[in-house]
Amino acid sequence: MASAPGSGGYVMKPYPRKGGGFYKDDGLPAQIPENIDQIPNATPRLEPLRNAANKPYTVLGMSFTPMTRLQPFSQQGIGSWYGTKFNGLKTSNGDTYDMFAMTAAHPTLPLPCYVRVTNTQNNRSVIVRVNDRGPFHNGRIIDLSFTAAYKLGYVDQGSSPVRVELIMPDASAVTYAELSKDALAANDAKIDDKTRYGEEVPKPGTYVQMGAFQNGFNAQVLRNHLLRELDWMTPAQVHVYAEPPWHRVQVGPFATRVQAETVQVKIRDALGGQPHIAVRQ
C-alpha cells in the first residue's frame, strides 16, 4: 500500500529488501517512490563548475586531482551506490543528497557534470548528474544514487561492473574560469558558506581528531569518507569545526579519554593514519 507524499515529495511504497551485499551496510530503504521506474534521467545542461569543489584534495593519505574542464572521459570499473546513511546530508557540491534523484559521486570528475553509466552485465544505461566526491575504495570508480543503481539492476547486490562516459552538453571544452564572474561568485558563496563546512559552536568533551585543513572542502570530503568507510559511525558523531584558519574533523565527543582512545584504535586499525586525542573544555 502506498503512503502519502514524504518530505521529498515522493509517494512511497514498501520495498522488499532482499540484499545484504550493499557497500558498508549503508542500508536498503524500507520504502521507495511508487513511480521509481518513471523517474527520468538527469537532463545534461551546461553549468558553472564549482571552483572549491574541483581543487586537489587528500583523504587519509590518498591524493586526488579533479578535472577542471569538461572534456572527453571514459572509464570502466566497479560501480557501487550510497543511500540511507547519507540521505539529506550535504554533497561535496553543496547540494542536499537525495537518494531517489539521479545523481552520483566520483573522485575526480569536474563538479558538477553529467555522465552516462552503463551496467556492462545487462547493458542498461542511465544519465546522472555528478555532484559529490567518492567512492574512496580500491576498485570502485563511481557511487550512484539508489534510484540510478536500481535502474541499472544492482541495488540488491550492491555493486556491478560499469562504464562511465562524460557527456559534453555543448560539445566544447569549458572551464570555470571561462564562465561569468557573477555565476562563479554565486557558486563559490554557496560552496564556501560556513554552515556548509563547519559547525559554529564546538561541543565540550574528548574527541578523536582525524585531520585539520585550511580548505574546508577537504575537511568535508574527509568527513564523508569516514562515514562511507566506517559502517558503525553515524553522521552525528563526525564534526567539522570551523576555527579560522582551520577546519578540524573530529569524532566525538566522548565522556572519557578511555572511550576516545578505544575509538582511536578502532579507526586506526580500519583506515590507518595517525588520529590523535583532542580535548575541548
Nearest-integer average pLDDT: 82
Could you say which overall geometry the principal axes of the C-alpha atoms support?
A: globular
CATH topology of the largest domain: Barwin-like endoglucanases
In the CATH hierarchy, what is the architecture of the largest domain at level 2?
A: Beta Barrel
* Oligomeric grouping of the chains: single chain
| Terminal CA distance | 51 Å
Write the element-wise H/E pattern from the N-terminal end onward.
EEEEEEEEEHEHHEHEEHE
Structure report:
The chain has 281 residues and is α+β, with helices and mostly antiparallel strands. The chain has two domains: 12-167, Beta Barrel (Barwin-like endoglucanases), CATH 2.40.40.10; 195-280, Alpha-Beta Plaits. It has five helices and 14 strands. It has helices spanning 146-152, 181-192, 194-197, 216-229, 257-271; strands at 12-14, 31-33, 57-59, 62-64, 74-81, 103-105, 113-119, 125-132, 140-144, 159-167, 205-213, 238-243, 246-254, 276-280. Strands 5-9-6-8-7-10 form a six-stranded mixed β-barrel. The longest helix has 15 residues, at 257-271. The N and C termini lie far apart (51 Å). Residues 1-7, 20-25, 171-184 and 186-195 have low confidence and may be disordered. It comes from Fluviibacter phosphoraccumulans.
